[in-house]
Write a structure and sequence with these properties.
Blueprint lengths: L7 H20 L1 H26 L15 H6 L4
Length: 79
């Protein structure tokens, strides 16, 4: 497939791959779960990267209230 020219064999191969994918999705639950897990993991990583790019301090806060978070340590100039 170069430019706008698509060879006929490439179309047949893509259709065949699609049909195999559909059959596997219908008959094999492990295949379906693996695809969904990989997609969910990829989406989670991209969302975490987006949050980190916007506000990295979101990850510095510790949810355990017994421990002081990094932001508080920086405010009191902890060494």
């Amino acid at each position: 497939m170069i430019g706008n020219k698509v060879e006929s064999y490439a179309v047949y191969i893509l259709v065949l791959i699609y049909l195999i994918h559909v059959v596997l999705m219908k008959l094999n639950s492990y295949y379906e779960v693996a695809i969904k897990k990989n997609l969910a993991n990829a989406m989670e990583v991209s969302e975490l990267k987006r949050i980190a790019n916007e506000d990295i301090s979101h990850f510095h806060y510790n949810l355990d209230s017994r421990n002081v978070c990094l932001e508080m340590l920086n405010k009191i100039q902890f060494k």
